[in-house]
Amino acid sequence: MTRYAASWAERVTLWAYGLVMSAAQPLLARKLSKRALAEPLYGRNIAQRWGYYADPIDSSPSASGSAYVWVHAVSLGETRAAAVLVGQLRERIPGMRLLLTHGTATGLAQGQSLLQEGDRQVWQPWDSPKAVARFLANFQPQMGVLMETEVWPNLIAACAQANVPLYLVNARLNEKSYSQALRFAWLARPAYAALAGVWAQSADDAQRLASLGAAVQAVEGNFKYDATPDATQLARGRTWRLGHKPVLMFASSREGEEQMLLSVLEENVSNTPMDKAHLAIKKIACLGVQLLIVPRHPQRFEAVAQLFEAAGLRVSRRSTWTQAPAEADVWIGDSVGEMALYFGLAQVALLGGSFAPLGGQNLIEAAACGCPVVMGPHTFNFAEAAEVSLAAGSAFRAEHLQDAVHLASDLLHHADRLEQSTQAALALCHAHQGAAARTANALSARLLH
Fold first, then answer.
1. CATH number for the domain including 67?
2. Which of 291, 374, 410, 433 has the lowest CB atom count within 10 Å?
3. Is the distance from CB of 89 to CB of 143 less than 8 angstroms?
């Protein structure tokens, strides 16, 4: 495996970065303790973040038949994408043992479903030299696979030193992240250049990655097109929507966007003086929709529900539903791992993270469920998918949330246009499948030969 020879200045930069990351460990521990108050998983096995494991193991092939194939999927979206790749790798690598790492509680919870006998799941090691060294010494993976954007300088340098080939797959690098990488080029370039191989989502991603020194092997597309929605959840959602007004979902809404929506609802729709709560209720009635809000982050479920309750709206939470959603002005999707249910329940979705300047969330998942999307101006995290979806007619763009709400409402009340967009979404996903299988072919070939 060809190694990138870092310059003296780059080695000094990496050394200084390692000192900073080591010094920051107490701050991370404090942050994790606070996060654990809302999401208890963050409080479990914190020592794993520093490379300490309660049950050190013999990970050699002679001990168990196969060394680990390590896959790092930082959060929920990456873990869902990794699930498709892991399934493809198991078909190609006999007796494969999976080492699965994550950085977030939602990723960890989702990843549990991917484990089989002999697999391990632990927290991603903090990117300090000692934590990374202990992680590699304990598990001795035969190959590492990083999902999408997870480029950590110390981790990559340590893998190169330990002769562990490390690959970046389903790789993306938007303009904002690219600009940041150029600002810290002495740190970023050696990291990208030391990767054993990179498979990019789009030609634009490939160009940016290659300019940073990454060994781009091919442009394969996005694994998320290969993910299959949970059929049971999807069917339940479609059953639950029966008997209700058309359902408009705010999918993976981010902080500040729910307040933006509330402000849209509180706009005057009548010459008759009334308080904001009545304005919002009347606006919802005028739109002729049932609102469903699904916040992106679980720690915000309570705050989002309280926001709409404080505005005088009737709120019903998913966590209280049994047989069907209760009557309310606003439904709150306060559960994790049920996006297929919510997309089945909705007929059109507003794309979270795209109305505030946050880059947007995954719109491919909506398309796979046959749910058209209306997105705002900020979709740089999923630029390729957004443009392809716009061209296919499965997504629409609005400059402001107010326009997006009216566009979505109009679509919901025109059955022919709604059906066209629904079918376009399903066709789009079918046409772009296969990226995970192609990447698995390339990875397994490198591992087995």
1. 3.40.50.11720
2. 410
3. no
> Range of 204's domain?
8-220+434-448
**How many separate domains does the chain show?**
2
Tokens describing residue 162: 């330990």
Q: Is 311 helix (H, G, I), strand (E, B) or coil?
A: coil
Cα 159 to Cα 136, 144, 211, 257, distances in angstroms:
8, 8, 22, 40
Q: What count of Cα atoms within 13 Å lies in the side-chain half-sphere of residue 71?
A: 33
Q: In this structure, which amino acid lies at residue 269?
A: V
Residues 134 and 252 in one domain: no
Out of 78, 148, 220, 365, the active site residue is: 78
pLDDT in tens, 248-271: 999 999 999 999 999 999 886 665
pLDDT digit string (tens) for 316-325? Answer: 999 999 888 9
Same domain, yes or no: 279 and 394: yes
Count CB neighbours of 325 within 10 A: 22
In the block, which residue shows the tokens 């047989």? 323
Yes or no: say if 324 and 345 are a contact pair by the CB < 8 Å rule: no
CB 252 within 8 Å of CB 353: yes
Q: Are residue 261 and residue 181 in the same domain, yes or no?
A: no
Q: Token pair 């609102």 is at which residue?
A: 291
The CA angle 249-392-369, to the nearest 5 degrees, is 40
Same domain, 206 and 79: yes
Domain membership flag for residue 279: yes
With contact defined as beta carbons under 8 Å apart, do 1 and 163 qualify? yes
H or E element: which one contains 421? helix 415-431
For 402-449, the pLDDT digits (tens) are: 999 999 999 999 999 999 999 999 999 999 999 999 999 999 999 887
Q: Is the pTM of this model over 0.90?
A: no
What distance in Å separates the CA atoms of residue 13 and residue 55, rounded to the nearest whole number?
A: 34
- 257 labelled catalytic: no
State the Cα–Cα distance between residues 27 and 31, nearest whole angstrom.
6
First to last CA, the chain: 13
Same domain, residue pair 141 and 160: yes
Cβ atoms within 10 Å, residue 221 = 23
Do 440 and 408 lie in one domain? The reply is no
